[in-house]
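Researcher: Here's the sequence for the chain we discussed earlier.
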Amino acid sequence: MDIRISKLSTAHKLSGLFLAVMAIASIVSGIIVHADTPCPAGQSIAFINQSNGDAVFIMDQFPAPNDNSYGENAVGWGSHGHKFRDLTGSDKAGFQVQNPSGTVVLSFNDDYISAASGSPSGYRSLGPFGGDGGIVRGTLTANDVTFDTSLARNLNNTGYFSGGVQVGGDTNLLLNSPATRNRVDDYTLQNPGNWTGTYTNPETLLPGYPGGYFTTVTGWNFHNTYFATVTGAKMNALGAIEQVGGVWRLKAGWTIGGNGVLHNSPAKVCPPPSTPTPTPSMTPTTTPTATATMTMSCTPTPGMTPTPTPPEVPEPTTILLLATGLLFGLGVFAFRRLRP
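Model: Thanks. This is the structure I predict for it:
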């Protein structure tokens, strides 16, 4: 039987057009709901060492937009994966000192990790003097600043490497991080007996430390963290500190913290709301001022503006505009075809 569209009833025409529009709208809605975007998580800590006036900076991000899991044991990186070479590529974080008038008198970016001779693993952070680091404003010499990162400490302070050769653990750490219980959301070491290296984060033991980061690492630190210290001599030369009652502190109106640079390539998307408990092998320790904890929540990082890799899925607003145009075009086309 030959039934032409032109002979369909008006009700049937409108019904068909409505169903087509609803189907497309459903698809668009699904795309918008599932659009993933990278998120900042972690914390920015900055304080003055009360005993000598050093300015101490800690920039910590975990579990996103970056972590120290990579290779075949990357956790939560999905089909895109995360490689060791990604961490040596272009990752960096920045810090600054600002005077009461709002002028930044010192700003620098720290390299996360790069190949470098003289370290046990053959890799370390080059701070503001190489790799992806650099001095943005002001001047710095090697005598003015010290720097490190959690990955560099994992590789160089645990005893897993000696003379550029790996001597501990059960996987090649220049390809893979230690295996965990799963590769989705669990950072608990699968074989903790093979990863017994331990070290201390000395910044957490200094007078004036406000708390918020763990002191002792055993096994592997999956937090992606930058550490930097500008000496009290440099801070004094900038006019930023003063000693009152034998205690060093920032002068009124001066601030220290992030300079707005935080680059991760690639950046990791936020994990789902339900996450496991912190890694037992990384036990926080209590300091006189605070109890350091290991959180897995995605909360904004004060003083930092992430510059993550753009998500592959278009933004919802863009999708909505495209869908609106598509629906309008289909409506016009259907109207012309269905018109008797």
